[in-house]
Amino acid sequence: MSKNNLSDEELVSRCQRELPDSTQSFEVLVQRYKPRIYLLVYRLVRNVEEAEDVTQEVFIKLYYHLHSLDQQGAFTGWMYRVAMNAALDALERCKRHPHPETEGESVNALDQQAASIPEPDEQVISAELRSCIQHVLSQLKREQARALILRDVEGLEYKEVARLLGTSLSAAKMRVHRARLAFQRLFMQQPCGRIYFELYVEQEQEKRNSYEL
After folding, report:
1. How many angstroms separate the Cα of 156 from the Cα of each of 81, 102, 134, 160?
2. Count of Cβ atoms closer than 10 Å to residue 68 Cβ
3. How does pLDDT run across 63-77, given as a tens digit for each residue?
4. Number of structural domains found in the chain
């Protein structure tokens, strides 16, 4: 059977037996998950070079610690936790040394989650706003940030969020709910959050005035 057709559990088991003498099975694992991990990281750090570096860092960590994984079926959840922690660490670094953002990137769910109000004009969603969102995300507790990333960045169903976090479905829903509240509260404490809210109020007032004419 081709290694590409093996399940994650079978592939991980082979990696644990073969590493470090052979990396063939691990290379298949990297090919299987690297695009997904890169996309997750890039959606957070918004910089191609940083995302590539962090993705490489994730798989280096997997390489050196894969032997310690002993719970059957736990690989994907463990890998996502490693990736999210690495991405959040990168956000901390980006706060100190900001990277220019790639132009034309689409807005993800956290842009709409940035305040408990409807999204204002699309032009308001600027690089500065995304930078503010990244800053707030990096201020959350790690367990809250991971829940929010899986649900609102990756767009996963709650059942999958619960599986990757290793919690019950109800606990995953509660964690996401609390993370959203914490995100909104922190966002509104930032200057950009207050500006965002003021712009929204101004636009709504203009709409009401136009209706009255």
Report:
1. 15, 24, 20, 6
2. 8
3. 999 988 876 568 888
4. 2
